Amino acid sequence: MKTYNPSAIEKKWQEVWEKNETFKADDNSDKKKFYGLVEFPYPSGVGLHVGHIRAYTSLEVISRKRRLEGYNVLFPIGWDAFGLPTENYAIQTGIHPREVTDRNIKVFTQQLKAAGYSFDWSRTVDTTDPEYYKWTQWIFLQMFKHGLAFKDKSYVNFCNHCKVVLANEDSQNGVCDRCGEQVVQLEKDVWFLKIREYADKLLDGLNEVNYLPRIRLEQENWIGRSYGAEVDFKLKDAEDKLRVYTTRPDTLFGATFMVIAPEHPYLEKYHDRITNMNEIHAYQEQSRRKTEFERVQLAKDKTGVEIKGLTAINPVSGEEIPIWVADYVMMGYGTGAIMAVPGHDTRDWEFAKKFSIPIIEVIGGGNIEEEAFTDVEDGILVNSGMLNGLRVKEAIAKIIDYLKENNLGESKTNYKMKDWAFNRQRYWGEPIPIIHCPHCGMVPVPEEELPLTLPEVEKYHPTETGESPLANIPEWVNVKCPVCGEDARRETDTMPQWAGSSWYFLRYIDPRNKEAIASDEKFKYWGPIDWYNGGMEHVTRHLIYSRFWHRFLFDIGAVPFKEPYAKRTAQGLILGSDGEKMSKSRGNVVNPNDIIEEFGADTLRTYIMFIGDYEKYAIWNDASVKGCRRFLDRAWKMQEMVTDESGYSEKHTTLMHKTIKKVTEDYEAMKYNTAIAAMMSFVNEITSDGYITRDEFKTFITLLNPVAPHITEEIWEEMNFGGMLNQAGWPTWDEEKTVDDVIELPVQISGKVRGKIVLPKDADVETARKLATDDENINKYLEGKNIIKEIYVAGKIYNIVVK
Ligand code: ANZ
Ligand code: ZN
């Protein structure tokens, strides 16, 4: 037998697969299809990291298993290659982002190939390739034509450091996703995509798919649908009404003050009437420096200013109530104004306490002197006129009817999710294909002119005012209006990186199609994606964005299936051996290439799947890497133990069927670690017995193949098992044969486990007693004692009570 030499055999099989196009997905097949998708990488300058390996190996295992099961598998990969780091690198070095990107793609390709992934390399897509972004621009134009893309002045999250507008999704917790700096609120002209119009569709679509529960929940929370009402409060001695959004219109009698956001337009409008405008201006200035995140935090001290000279009338109680400005109310949600009900809302309660505003109880049962009474689902209304005695639900229905009848308001659904700020003032992105004409307004670039390619620039810096460097190229910017032929200007903003990744999974289906994103026939065959795996960090961004684009394309008839992903799962992070997130500065980064070089790709893959519960974070452990290599060494050595059929043993049959069942079910449930543990104990058993039949070995090698494809192909060939392993078929098990005839039974003496006996599972108590007394370790607890009782259930329990 040869020695196990991963570097030689891995290279050999990778070449064979490439030459034979083993993993090429077949567009004309009558097999069942499986489309497995992993999040395509951003080809950064630092190369592949072990997080990628964890993310990709899981669906790699599933894809290889599916092929063995007889499926026609599409398992593609590509490059999400527009992005700030590449552009920043270009700014620093002057090297064109195209060149940097190509270089990085080369490195990533070589690394992914070295890991032995069964990607269909003929279908790679690159979001920065004009042939690709032609369709990104085309989709944008369809959205524009359907009124889903618009440009508007708006308060946006702006990063002073990156000079870039950030979507909420890109500035979670108030920090820039790119550089970690606090973002500020700026008023700018920005492009938006009306993702809110799709909020209901995105929520309802969740009923049609199979996502991990926590993924579903995060999507629901992010979209944040809430049902309530808008209510008008009359301003005293003024024409206007102040409209609020509330989820609890039943508490209207308890509204003792109102709060408007510092950006609320009434502050300007009633400027002359308000007598403490200076104080309010100072307050506005102070809150402008806060991020939305700081503003909404519950724990923080409430601040605010009472507006002098402007009050409101509670529409049901007729009471005159004060209006305050406070930054815990956001302009971007609801109407930017609230009715404050301190008896039953925690933020309002804290505010009322701090500023000595009256608190009225309108739902009985709490202790509103101590805290707001908010847990009121079954509460009964009090101090509320016509609502008294009603339950909360009934009161909500009744008051909404009343508001409608009296023209005071209406029911209203709101969403936390905001429209998607869709642009960057950057070079390295898809140019937004719009022309601004002084006569015709915003005019789409004619579709036949797509792709609208990026021009060459001298410098990649945004302009000082934060405009894209494209704005500095007059030849590119100045064009004739496609409608009226007059002088016009191109839009100089580019799209955010999320654009290209919002539809890439569709392009894999037909990546070189010139007429459409993909042909209808291929869409119908391959769609939807059967299984999509990726990071939890993308659940509120990429996953929502791409479901939105996809659903839009479905609505306009450009794709024939409604939801893109039938199933979505997520992996946990891999932390460094110090338990911290891997980072250059901590020096705890593991480079997958080093592991491949020292131990082989099969060891890396085995280890990364063995590292722990797939959905949880896991800590890197070098010793365990070595353990995985030893496991493969032992699997290799099993070649010497193969016997002819005379090596048949019933114990091995049971072990084999148990292992097939365990590995098959665990792979599907993403319990890769326990699947590998089962294969490890299989190898241990066989090695200690010293023999295995050819058939059993063949089966075992097949089970291991999805995780460790190179070593298993090599063994297959060495053993002359015939043909290629990757066409071998997936083993099945016989349920009856998974049950042991001989079992290990723990023996308890007066309730304490003292040892184990091995016996047939239907043995009688005499056999059990004899074995127990024969066992030295158990017998020492029996010697000199009287057996007063025996509880024996065959195959389950043996307890001897002694005195
Ligand atoms: C009166 C009330 C009484 C409220 C009560 C709650 C409890 P969700 O579920 O998040 O939609 N609100 C409305 N607009 C706001 C804004 N722009 N900034 C900050 N808060 C705002 O919650 C909606 C509730 O949050 C609304 O219902 C309003 O307070 C507040 F016992 O109105 B409520
Ligand atoms: Zn025009």
TrEMBL record:
Lineage: Bacteria, Bacillati, Bacillota, Tissierellia, Sedimentibacter
Domain of life of the source: Bacteria
GO biological process: leucyl-tRNA aminoacylation
Methionyl/Valyl/Leucyl/Isoleucyl-tRNA synthetase anticodon-binding domain sequence ranges: 656-766
Chain ranges of the Aminoacyl-tRNA synthetase class Ia domain: 12-216, 417-613
Gene name in the database record: leuS
UniProt family annotation: Belongs to the class-I aminoacyl-tRNA synthetase family.
EC number: 6.1.1.4
Pfam families: Anticodon_1, tRNA-synt_1, tRNA-synt_1_2
Name under which the protein is recorded: Leucine--tRNA ligase
The keyword Nucleotide-binding belongs to this UniProt entry's keyword annotation: yes
